[in-house]
Design brief:
This protein is mainly beta. It has one helix and twelve strands; from the N terminus they run βαβββββββββββ.
Length: 160
């Protein structure tokens, strides 16, 4: 595989979150490096957060490990233990089936970037720590439910 040309890769924006959660990650973009390189066993993404943006809602993975390394700028990592400032070279690891919700916030006035690497389980469940929301991803399809298993239905007028 030749060197990846990052400038030629499509920039991914938006969210799979249902309304009203979908707007929470405005200002987040990513490059799917693993996909571009043909990787199938793990994902590699280069994520950029605009000033004031967040990476995701706080979540934890049932089946997938996740590793993050800051490449540029500064972030606040929020976990169940609280807030930790992170800068270039700082890393964090989130083992599968460890219920410690995490996400990253850019509270600076400049864009900031991190590399995220995660395993690709055939079936994954992620739980959102601060919301009554769970996502199951299987065969490339995301299904959202409440934590008690009831189907999630977006508030009226906010369906996509």
């Amino acid at each position: 595989m030749p060197k990846l040309d990052l400038a030629s890769l499509p920039v991914r924006t938006g969210s799979i979150y249902p309304p009203p959660y979908d707007t929470l990650v405005a200002g987040r973009s990513s490059l799917r490096l693993g996909e571009a390189g043909g990787l199938t066993q793990f994902g590699v993404n280069l994520v950029t957060l605009a000033p004031g943006a967040m990476s995701s809602m706080r979540h934890w993975h049932l089946a997938e490990d996740e590793f993050v390394m800051v490449t540029e700028g500064r972030f606040i990592m929020v976990t169940d233990a609280g807030e930790t400032e992170m800068g270039p070279g700082d890393c964090a690891a989130f083992p599968a089936n460890t219920p410690d919700g995490h996400h990253f916030l850019n509270r600076t006035g400049r864009p900031a970037t991190f590399l995220v690497i995660g395993s690709k389980a055939p079936r994954e469940v992620a739980t959102y720590s601060d919301e009554d929301l769970v996502v199951t991803v299987e065969a490339g399809r995301a299904t959202f439910t409440h934590k008690d298993g009831r189907p999630y239905i977006a508030p009226k007028g906010e369906q996509k």
